[in-house]
Amino acid sequence: MASTQQAVSSASDADQQYAKFDERKRKRMESNRESARRSRMRKQQRLGELMSETTQLHKQNSICRERIDSVERNYRAMDAENNVLRAQIAELTERLNSLNSLTQFWADATGFPVDLSEIPDTLLEPWQLPCPIQPIDASSDMLLF
């Protein structure tokens, strides 16, 4: 009977150990599931943050492109206007030279002296004119990109 009692006791001890092992395994599985759930939630949150950041960066990129396009249009307009002004300067200079030639021809033909001054280089190259120090008026529209 002692051996049957030992056998029952051994079986009972084995069942308890198995139950403890089973309980630890169940707790570990629950812990792993919870950890996996938290990990998925963090990944989902990070994905949402990245999607939001991507959207924001696309908007900023679009704004930058619009500003670049605006500056480029303004540059082209100014360049075209400068070309027109250069052509006008060339035309007016040619007219002035022609008028000076006619005036000189008339002076030579009539004998009346005419004092013709040469066209100053500063009129042909206005960027070399001496400029007094004075403030430059600017509007906020000039600073937009």
TrEMBL record:
GO terms for biological process: positive regulation of DNA-templated transcription. Residues 22-85 form the BZIP domain. It holds the Pfam family bZIP_1. Its main location: nucleus. Residues 1-15, 52-62 have a biased composition (Polar residues). It is found in: Nucleus. The keyword DNA-binding applies. SUPFAM superfamilies: Leucine zipper domain. Residues 20-37 have a biased composition (Basic and acidic residues). This is Bzip transcription factor 53.
